[in-house]
Amino acid sequence: MSESSGLSGGKMTSSQEVGKEEEIELEEGAKVDIKKLVSIVPPPSSLFSRQRSGIREKRLRLKYDPNVREGEIKISSVLAREMGVKEYIEITVAGRKRFRLKAIIVDELDANYVSVNPDQMKHLGISDNSICTIRPI
pTM (2 decimals)? Predict the structure, then answer.
């Protein structure tokens, strides 16, 4: 048997391998281009980005607000929607002090600031306008 028929010991010539990669024979006998099939499959980056939408953490400033109760934090509705905040937020200040507060979502607050209780923050040793990292829990 000759190599061009592709039956010589189960080995295929390079031209037959290329032909197999480009086209697939369906049971009806129609041939489909593999490049068209592969174009339907989304790239891995888009598949993995769907797993968790939004940003995971954000750095911003803490502002003292005496109207906020202890154990709570006021956050902008825009920022809460962007981060996917549901009920609690974890705050880290200077990479050392970490605590959880209940999120109160407010429309009229600036997205670059969060408001906290001044008495609680003074007790924890955190000053007004401190930069912090917030993460939704």
Answer: 0.58
